[in-house]
Write a structure and sequence with these properties.
572 residues; alpha/beta; Protocatechuate 4,5-dioxygenase, Chain B; Purple Acid Phosphatase, chain A, domain 2; 2 domains
Length: 572
C-alpha cells in the first residue's frame, strides 16, 4: 500500500509539472521564450472584437483563464455607434448567448454610475459588437460576471484617468479585457507600420503614442496602460500580431489588423526599438486645388485616400509647397506661380494625420519674410511641426529631431540654389555623433526629369559620406529613380502628392514611402499614388507594380532583401 501511495504521488507531481510546462508554452507566442507562469499577475488583456481572429482571441483567453479566474471581468470597447449621450457608458443588463448567459455585476454597475464617471444605459449596448463578440470567450474562460463599459472615441484623457482611478479603487479581483481592433482598412505595408508604432507604445507605456496610434479606441488602450501601471504589471507581452508578414498575403488587400497581448508582472521579451515613418511628396493647396474644394472644404481632397494612412507613425511628413496665410486670400485660378494657402490648410493637414512638414522649398517665401513667419505660426497653432527654410540650410531652422525608439534627425535643404555645404556636412556629423539617425529631405533636381541628375547624385554621395542614413527628395513633380549608395537608400523624388498639374499622367502620380528604422536595418515600402480630379489615392494591382518598376527593379536589385511585392529591407 505504501509503495502504491508513493507511486501515485509521483505520477501527480509529474503530471503537474507537465501541465505548467505546456501552459507556459501555450501562453507565450513563438517569439517569446517559455517561462514558468504559476503565480503570474495578469490584470490586463488586449484582444480584438474583429471575428476574423476569433480563434486567436479564444486561444489567449483560454490560456490565461487556466491560470487565473478573477471575480469580475471589466470588458471595455469603443462605442462604435456613438449610442447614448455620455462619453462613458455601462449597463445593468445580461446577455443571452449560445452556450449560456453572461451576468453583469449589478452592484458595480450601480456604483460606477453613482460615481458620475459613467452613465448606465442598457440600450446603448444593443448592437455593440465590441462587447458582444468577446463575451463568449470571457464567460467560458475568464469570468461569467462582468462589468461592461463602452467609451466614445472623443472622450478626453482626464475622464479616462478618473475611470482608471475608480476601477483600481473599487475592484480588487478583476481583469480588464480591452476589446480593440488596430490598423483599419489599410494595405499590409501601412498596417505593419501602424502596428509596430502601437506595439512600441504599449511596451513603453507611452501615453502620447498610444493616444496617436492607429486603432479604433486609443481611450481603451490608454485605460489598459493606466491599470497596468496601477497594478505594477508594466511588462507588455505580445501574443500575436496579424501583420507579422505571413507568406502569401495579398499586399494590396485592405483589412483590419489585430494585436493580442497582456500586461504581466513577469519579465517579457523586449521588442526591438524602432522609429516609423510615412512620407509623401509635394503638396500645393492654391490655384485649382483651392478653387475646386473651397466650397466643399479641403478635407474632401482626401476622400479617396482616407485619414488613417499617416496616423500611427513617429513621422508623418510631406513637403508643403507654399506659405499659409492667417486670413482668407482670393486664390489663383490657373497659371500663377506665386502661392498663398488659405488658413484652413494646417487643420486639413492635421486631420489627415500629418505631423511634420518641410518648408525647405522654392515656394515657401512666396508671401515674403512676414508670410514665412505667419506660416510657422499657423502650423504651430494646429499642432503641425515644421523644419527647413526658403533658402539653403541653417543649423537653427533646418533640423527637426524626432525622439522615437531610434532617435532621428530630419534635415531639410533647399538645394536648388547654393548653400553652405560645409556647414551642412558638419551638422550631419554632429547629429550622428549624438547617436541619431539622419534623414536628409532635399528640395532638388530638374523639374519633370524621370531620372536623377549627376548633381543630385554628387550631393547624395557627399551627405552619405558625412553620415546621412537616408535621403528622400522632392521638387521634380514626378517620381524619380531609387539608388543605394554605400548601403544607404536614396529616393530621388517622391513626385506630387496634391497638385493641379493636369498636363501629363506622370505629374499626377507620386509615391508614399513608409517604413521603420531600427538599429540594424531600414525597412522601406514603396506605395505609388495617383490623383483623380486632384484627389490622391493609392495604386493597387498591376498599376502599382508597373509604377514601382519605373522607380527600380524590386525583383533583381542589389543591396537589399525583398520582403514583399512593395517592401524591401536594407541592412545598416
Amino acid at each position: 500500500m505504501k509503495k502504491f501511495v508513493i507511486i501515485l504521488i509521483s505520477i501527480i507531481l509529474i503530471a503537474g509539472s507537465y501541465y505548467f510546462y505546456f501552459m507556459s508554452k501555450a501562453l507565450a507566442p513563438e517569439s517569446l521564450s517559455s517561462r514558468t507562469i504559476s503565480g503570474e499577475k495578469i490584470p490586463v488583456v488586449i484582444v480584438p472584437h474583429f471575428n476574423d481572429f476569433a480563434d486567436k482571441r479564444a486561444e489567449l483567453l483560454k490560456n490565461i483563464g487556466a491560470i487565473y479566474r478573477p471575480e469580475v471581468a471589466i470588458v471595455v470597447s469603443v462605442n462604435h455607434f456613438n449610442s447614448g449621450t455620455a462619453n462613458i457608458i455601462t449597463a445593468d443588463r445580461n446577455w443571452t448567448l449560445a452556450g449560456g448567459d453572461v451576468q453583469t455585476d449589478k452592484s458595480l454597475v450601480a456604483k460606477l454610475a453613482a460615481s458620475g464617471i459613467a452613465t448606465s444605459d442598457a440600450s446603448a449596448f444593443a448592437n455593440e459588437h465590441g462587447i458582444t463578440n468577446v463575451l463568449p470567450d470571457v464567460r467560458d474562460d475568464i469570468s461569467a460576471n462582468i462589468l461592461p463599459i463602452i467609451i466614445r472615441d472623443t472622450t478626453p484623457r482626464e475622464q479616462i484617468n478618473k475611470l482608471a482611478d475608480w476601477l483600481s479603487a473599487n475592484i480588487n479581483e478583476g481583469m480588464l479585457i480591452a476589446s480593440v481592433d488596430f490598423s483599419h482598412y489599410q494595405p499590409n505595408a501601412i498596417a505593419k507600420v501602424h502596428d509596430q508604432f502601437s506595439i512600441s507604445a504599449l511596451e513603453n507605456l507611452d501615453a502620447d503614442k498610444t493616444w496617436a496610434a492607429e486603432t479604433d479606441s486609443p481611450q481603451t488602450l490608454y485605460l489598459a496602460e493606466k491599470l497596468a501601471e496601477k497594478n505594477q504589471t508594466k511588462n507588455f507581452n505580445l501574443y500575436y500580431n496579424s501583420n507579422s508578414g505571413e507568406a502569401g498575403k495579398n499586399d494590396d488587400a485592405e483589412t483590419t489588423s489585430v494585436v493580442l497581448g497582456y500586461y504581466s508582472d513577469k519579465s517579457s521579451v523586449a521588442i526591438e526599438p524602432s522609429t516609423s515613418f510615412i512620407i509623401a511628396g509635394d503638396a500645393m493647396f492654391d490655384r485649382n486645388v483651392w478653387q475646386t474644394f473651397k466650397t466643399a472644404g479641403l478635407d474632401q481632397i482626401f476622400d479617396n485616400f482616407g485619414t488613417r494612412v499617416f496616423r500611427g507613425s513617429d513621422i508623418g511628413l510631406i513637403n508643403l509647397e507654399g506659405p499659409v496665410s492667417s486670413v482668407s486670400v482670393p486664390g489663383i485660378q490657373t497659371g500663377g506661380m506665386s502661392f498663398n494657402f488659405q488658413p484652413e490648410v494646417p487643420s486639413a493637414l492635421k486631420n489627415l494625420g500629418i505631423s511634420e512638414v518641410s518648408l525647405a522649398n522654392n515656394h515657401t517665401n512666396n508671401a515674403g519674410a512676414s508670410g514665412f513667419v505667419t506660416t510657422q505660426s499657423m502650423l504651430t497653432k494646429s499642432g503641425v511641426k515644421y523644419f527647413g527654410q526658403p533658402e539653403g540650410f541653417s543649423t537653427d531652422n533646418s533640423v527637426l529631431r524626432i525622439d522615437g525608439g531610434v532617435p532621428t534627425s530630419i534635415i531639410g535643404i533647399m538645394a536648388l540654389d547654393s548653400f553652405d555645404e560645409a556647414a551642412l556636412e558638419a551638422k550631419i556629423k554632429s547629429e550622428k555623433s549624438a547617436g541619431r539617425t539622419v534623414i536628409i529631405f532635399p528640395h532638388w533636381g530638374v523639374e519633370y526629369a524621370p531620372a536623377h541628375s549627376a548633381t543630385q547624385e554628387q550631393l547624395a554621395k557627399s551627405w552619405i559620406s558625412a553620415g546621412a542614413d537616408m535621403i528622400i527628395g522632392s521638387h521634380p513633380h514626378v517620381t524619380e529613380d531609387f539608388q543605394i549608395i554605400d548601403g544607404r537608400p536614396v529616393v530621388y523624388s517622391l513626385g506630387n502628392f496634391v497638385f493641379d498639374q493636369f498636363f501629363s499622367d506622370v505629374t499626377q502620380q507620386g509615391l508614399v514611402l513608409a517604413g521603420t528604422i531600427t538599429k540594424n536595418k531600414i525597412t522601406l515600402s514603396f506605395l505609388p499614388t495617383v490623383e483623380k480630379n486632384i484627389k490622391p489615392q493609392l495604386l493597387t494591382g498591376a498599376a502599382k507594380t508597373a509604377k514601382i518598376k519605373t522607380i527600380f527593379d524590386i525583383n533583381s536589385g542589389t543591396g537589399f532583401v525583398k520582403l514583399t511585392s512593395d517592401t524591401i529591407e536594407i541592412a545598416r
